[in-house]
């Protein structure tokens, strides 16, 4: 459900998105869709199988199309207990720490995220870090902010099918500006990538 912002100083022009409870089958649907994404970039069947897969995909589109809804109405990105908060756009992270001192996520990338040679595509990591920056802003109690810039340093190849840890924290504040740092670590604590960015608080009514 979406409500108008009750406090423009906190939310700018953003509506307030409430958590959703679509029932257990939405999680099952997302799990199947994530697996379908992996297979879409890795399967190599014969032409007849592709034809059957296309028919099934078109049937799914036809089934769901009548229920397409505005942003913040459907459950995507509004189910915190599901991987990626219930959004297929997001890597399937889970929040393991969320407080004013920092936010920590557990995440495992898959075939869908491969850029080449079974390594995670470099463009996927800024998406993860940008989402983490937004969580840090929320966890520290700062108002809704937009990303002004985000810089990523790639230190090692990021593997797939491995449980990784992403950590973010507020480095410093200057009025409307919040400087955020983050890193991505493998199970042995090796640094895979690190990021720093600037988040700027929205003015009342600013989109």
Automatic annotation (TrEMBL):
Residues 1-24 are annotated as: Disordered. It is found in: Cell projection, Ruffle membrane; Cytoplasm; Membrane. Residues 120-192 form the Thioesterase domain. Keywords: Apoptosis, Cell membrane, Cell projection, Cytoplasm, Fatty acid metabolism, Hydrolase, Lipid metabolism, Membrane, Transit peptide. InterPro entries: HotDog_dom_sf (IPR029069), THEM4/THEM5_acyl-CoA_thioest (IPR052365), Thioestr_dom (IPR006683). The keyword Protease does not apply. GO terms for biological process: fatty acid metabolic process. It is an enzyme of class 3 (hydrolase). It is a peripheral membrane protein. One of its GO terms (molecular function) is hydrolase activity. One of its GO terms (cellular component) is membrane. Its EC number is 3.1.2.2. It catalyses: hexadecanoyl-CoA + H2O = hexadecanoate + CoA + H(+); decanoyl-CoA + H2O = decanoate + CoA + H(+); (5Z,8Z,11Z,14Z)-eicosatetraenoyl-CoA + H2O = (5Z,8Z,11Z,14Z)-eicosatetraenoate + CoA + H(+); (9Z)-octadecenoyl-CoA + H2O = (9Z)-octadecenoate + CoA + H(+). CDD domains: PaaI_thioesterase. Belongs to the THEM4/THEM5 thioesterase family. This is Acyl-coenzyme A thioesterase THEM4. It comes from Mycolicibacterium thermoresistibile (strain ATCC 19527 / DSM 44167 / CIP 105390 / JCM 6362 / NCTC 10409 / 316) (Mycobacterium thermoresistibile).
